[in-house]
Amino acid sequence: MKRGFSMSLDRYDRHILSLLQENGRLSNIELADAIGLSPSPCLRRVRALEESGIIQGYRALLDARKLGLNLEALVHISMDQHTPERFAHFEAQIARLPEVLECLLITGQSADYQLKVVVSDMDAYQALLLNKITRIEGVTGVHTSFVLRRVLDKTALPIPT
């Protein structure tokens, strides 16, 4: 799907998207039954939503704590230069770090980027920060906030009507 292009969604499409966001493992038969269509047209709709790029993929959601990843942090990064080359270099380096779950180029703050990172403990965070993040060329400032508790944790997007 071309960026900026929007596929027209009817009530069946919206229902499919809502159900698949809740449970991406629904079989086509279960999905068709839930939305009130026969399996064949339901599958065509799902494939159209995939081909349009609205459905980007399917993933398993993991419990970080059960994997020993007990510390989550939001890290604000300031850069020395605001050039496309400097940003591209930073983004390429950050993309290589498995501890970084999210990287956002932001405005309205004193920082240029906000990272969401997850690690096992404070020692692991210190190693990530000092041995990797601050060694990326152009990083001039780092401000970290540690997550005390997740109040809301959603992955489902609101489906426009």
From TrEMBL:
Record keywords: Metal-binding included?
A: no
Q: Name one GO cellular component term.
A: cytosol
Outline the extent of the HTH asnC-type domain.
Answer: 9-70
Q: Which GO terms describe its biological process?
A: regulation of DNA-templated transcription; response to amino acid
Q: Which UniProt keywords apply?
A: DNA-binding, Transcription, Transcription regulation
Question: A GO molecular function for this record?
Answer: sequence-specific DNA binding
Q: Which domain of life is it from?
A: Bacteria
Gene3D superfamilies documented for this protein: 3.30.70.920, Winged helix-like DNA-binding domain superfamily/Winged helix DNA-binding domain (1.10.10.10)
InterPro entries recorded: ArsR-like_HTH, AsnC-type_HTH_dom, Dimeric_a/b-barrel, Tscrpt_reg_AsnC-like, Tscrpt_reg_AsnC/Lrp_C, Tscrpt_reg_HTH_AsnC-type_CS, WH-like_DNA-bd_sf, WH_DNA-bd_sf
Keyword Amino-acid biosynthesis included in the entry's annotation: no
Identification of the protein by name: AsnC family transcriptional regulator
Give the organism, scientific name. Answer: Halothiobacillus diazotrophicus
